[in-house]
Specification:
Blueprint: E1 2-6, H1 10-21, E2 26-29, H2 32-41, E3 43-47, E4 50-54, E5 58-59, E6 71-75, H3 82-92, E7 98-101, H4 108-115, E8 119-125, E9 128-132, E10 135-138, E11 146-151, H5 158-169, H6 180-191, H7 194-199, H8 204-223, H9 231-238, H10 254-261, H11 272-281, H12 287-302, H13 311-317
Parallel strand pairs: 1-2, 1-6, 2-5, 3-10, 6-7, 7-8
Antiparallel strand pairs: 3-4, 8-11, 9-10
Helix pairs in contact: 3-4, 8-11, 8-13, 11-12
């Protein structure tokens, strides 16, 4: 199969880079200075075995893709960027294209399924960093990621088997899941700490706030009748597969990276904000996640320094 990695940032760049190195045809979709750097010097994949130059076709629109019946789109943008990406794909991709959502949160799959019948989801376990145009850094080695896949709304088929096989050929751990969204909802619960990691000074108060956010998230998902795998199941799946590169400085998650790059936005509305939305729909109070959303939004809009807020102040207010 041929792959179009739509969103060649931290996650998409690592996925696309490894698929390319495995000999699979890959087209990268990026934008701005990142796209310019890729076109000029290739995508630099900084992995545990060195820095590799990925010389793959790159564009900023699906209009430039050489579409065929065996093309698979890996949608790896942040959730708040998905609407624009899906609109571009709807205009230019075949109606029956395979669309694999390698996104955080749980909203992109529904938006994609509205437009594309062959929609799939990946639970993304892929520590990576993208702070410099043209460069993505894989945080783990020798296995850079765990990318389990399933159909939307549920089940597996020949496509999940084929994509999982290609990912494994690229050195990425991948299994097919009958209920992939249950795994993605557990990942969402873990990602409720992203805004806290991005906005608040690290320490005991921030850790306490993260624990409260996750517990609140579990209550909301349960009230909404949505399944999610347990934390123990998630730990068992991860096991010792993802080994952090010890020589790399530990930075921050995807939301911290957005604030650090001064993008002016973040995907917080689809992480902690997803719990806020579900809470409002099912009449469950969500004061913790509301506070995290408000804090992260304020820093993003102001272009303020990441981790510049005090979580203790939020805890006192709560």
């Amino acid at each position: 199969m041929k792959y179009v990695v739509y969103g060649a940032g931290a996650v998409g760049g690592v996925i696309g880079g490894h698929l390319h190195l495995a000999g699979l045809p890959v087209t990268l979709v990026a934008r701005g200075a990142h796209l310019a750097a890729i076109r000029s010097d290739g995508l630099v994949l900084d992995a545990g075995d060195g820095r590799r130059r990925i010389d793959a076709p790159a564009t900023d629109t699906a209009a430039d893709v050489d579409w065929s019946s065996d093309t698979v789109v890996v949608l790896a943008v942040k959730s708040h960027q998905a609407h624009e990406a899906l609109a571009d794909l709807r205009r230019h991709a075949p109606d029956d294209v395979v669309l694999v959502c390698a996104t955080n949160g749980i909203a992109t799959e529904t938006a994609a399924l509205r437009l594309f019948a062959r929609t799939y989801a990946v639970c993304v376990m892929l520590p990576a960093t993208h702070l410099e145009p043209g460069v993505v850094v894989a945080g783990c080695h020798p296995t850079p990621a765990i990318l389990d896949i399933g159909r939307i709304p549920a089940g597996t088929d020949a496509t999940t088997a084929a994509v999982a096989a290609d990912l494994r050929a690229a050195g990425i751990a991948s299994e097919e899941r009958l209920d992939i969204m249950a795994w993605k909802r557990r990942k969402l619960l873990m990602n409720l700490g992203n805004g806290i990691d991005a906005s608040f000074a690290q320490g005991g108060a921030a850790d306490d706030l993260a624990e409260r956010a996750e517990a609140e998230g579990e209550r909301v998902l349960a009230a909404a009748g949505l399944s999610f795998v347990t934390a123990d199941e998630d730990r068992e799946r991860r096991g010792s597969i993802l080994q952090r590169r010890t020589a790399l400085e530990r930075r921050g998650g995807s939301t911290w990276q957005s604030l650090s790059r001064g993008t002016g936005d973040s995907e917080i509305d689809y992480l902690a904000g997803e719990i806020v939305l579900l809470g409002r729909l099912h009449d469950v109070p969500t004061p913790v996640n509301e506070a995290v959303v408000a804090a992260t939004r304020s820093l993003a809009y102001a272009g303020a320094e990441p981790r510049s807020l005090d979580a203790a102040e939020v805890l006192r207010a709560l």
